[in-house]
Amino acid sequence: MKFSAFVLLIALSVTIQPVAKAQDPQTAPIAPTAPAATPSPTPTPQPRPTPAPSAEVLPGKGLAQHPFLYCGEWDTRKPEQTMFIIRDGKVVWSYSIPNEEELDDCTQLSNGNIIFARKGKGASEITPDKKIVWNYEAPPHTEVHSAQPIGKDRVLIMQNGNPAKLMLIEKKTGKVVKELELPTRQPDKVHGQFRHIRMTKKGTFLVAHLDLGKVVEYDQNGKEIWSVPAPSAWAAVRLKNGNTLISGNQHGYVREVNPKGETVWEINKDDLPGYPLYTVQEVERLANGNTLINNWSGGLKKADWPVVVQLIEVTPDKKVVWALRDWDTLGPASSTQLLDEPGVPEKGDQQR
Fold first, then answer.
1. pLDDT single digits (tens) 258-305
2. How far apart are CA 146 and CA 106, in angstroms?
3. Are 248 and 254 within 8 A, CB to CB?
4. What residue ranges define each of the domains in the chain, with the CATH number in brackets?
5. What per-residue confidence (pLDDT) applies to 30?
6. Beta strand extents in 63-105 (DSSP E only)
7. Which of 109, 285, 309, 337 has the fewest CB atoms within 10 Å, i.e. the most exposed one?
8. What region, left, alpha or beta, does residue 104 occupy, with left being phi > 0 and alpha being psi -120 to 50 degrees?
9. 130-145, pLDDT tens digit by residue?
10. CB–CB of 124/320 below 8 Å?
11. Cis peptide before 345 (omega within 30 of 0)
12. Helices vs. strands in the chain: H and E counts, helices first
């Protein structure tokens, strides 16, 4: 009897350890470290999502809140992934690419055309009637996840590879008018090197080094003129106030830093009750001072995707004024352009 009680006590004392969730090699970037020689820490498994409020009580007007262009990478529920234009709460235009490509960056120009990145296939420009009028074909073993229109005649891309290259391309001739080779932590691991880069109004290049865990500003000659640590920086945009808005990918943060590198505003994974951040990809500062967050869900099990809010608009005091969750219409969120924002997109007037 004593022996049985002893066995029972041992059995009850065993703690079942949770099994870490495997990340897909196509979506999991290399975790950044400070010095290049330091091994990456093992990523923390994503917890099972807590359902946000039902669609009927989510703040805002759902798909009707803004007209917008929406694209997202890795919608593996389907054989294709699709970018959409939404107006008055309805899909008015869409375009799909094979699922081995990825939709990480998309911008509608003032003439209605759309510039978009497509991973291993490079980058393209498409008209409203779905005609490809410009295309950059990426070389083998490279990836393009960033495509920024610079005026109507040039496109800035970041080509992950060995070496990794920032390239400013003249669309009419295909000529590369500016090329900078940028450092990476592991040159042979191209997928996790970069996502978004942006040319600033001053003509400098603001680069989110995903695998180096920092944001760096380079001059036209490739000289580093400013930097700030930023774990797994997915995107960085220079704001009109001179600060820089950064997204933290799997770390789930949105961070605004001043020119001294000091954090002056920040949202972390669990700062918005009921709206947890999972993988934060593109972020945008709107003209009204609010911030739009693309809350990507690819690091979660597909069975959990439907509870994730894809887009979140927050005020400066972190009040959620729009939370969009519509998995029947849209896929995971990577890059969203609100089409009611003032300014000319190809002139860099929008802060995204």
1. 999 999 999 999 999 999 999 999 999 999 999 999 999 998 999 999
2. 8
3. yes
4. 65-347 (2.130.10.10)
5. 38
6. 68-71, 80-87, 90-98
7. 109
8. alpha
9. 999 999 999 999 999 9
10. no
11. no
12. 1, 24
